[in-house]
Specification:
Mean pLDDT: 81
CATH class: Alpha Beta
CATH topology: Nuclear Transport Factor 2, Chain: A
Strand order of the largest sheet: 3-4-5
Number of helices: 2
Structural class: alpha+beta
Distance between the termini: 46 Å
Helix content: 10-25%
Radius of gyration: 16 Å
Order of helices and strands: EEHHEEE
Strand content: 25-35%
Largest sheet: 3 strands, antiparallel
CATH architecture: Roll
Shape: globular
Length: 129
């Protein structure tokens, strides 16, 4: 089995301008995929037109009490969302850190990028109500 070498390119959703070309900033390879995974996790159901079940739908769980069952539900939702909506990654692993004193939910998502040289990457998302 040979690994195909691809290049991934997306535009930045911050809509910052490139100082040289005066065009929208472009994200390449690992940075593009990292932003994509982060955006998938941050989306709630019914936020994306014509695709009501896109995203992780995690925000609604922020107001629940922290239990092992809730942590498993968060891991399950994030894993499913990334595996379904981001075909450029595989082997998703999710770590959940609930800090009740600060009302924060920290989620670290580790994944393997497909198509370019085998690269493991991760992204950390902090949810605050």
């Amino acid at each position: 089995m040979s690994i195909l070498s691809k290049s991934f390119k997306d535009f930045s959703l911050t809509f910052e301008k490139n100082a040289v070309t005066n065009d929208i900033l472009a994200l390449k390879n690992e940075a593009a995929i990292k932003e994509s995974v982060k955006n998938i996790v941050l989306y709630n159901f019914y936020e994306k037109p014509f695709d009501p079940f896109f995203g992780g739908n995690i925000i609604g769980l922020l107001f629940e009490n922290s239990t092992p069952t809730l942590e498993l539900e968060i891991k399950h939702r994030i894993t499913n969302a990334v595996e379904i909506f981001e075909p450029r990654v595989s082997a998703v692993s999710v770590r959940v850190n609930f800090e009740e004193d600060r009302n924060e939910l920290g989620v670290t998502i580790e994944y393997l990028i497909l198509g370019i040289r085998p690269t493991f990457d991760d992204v950390t998302v902090i949810f605050k109500p």
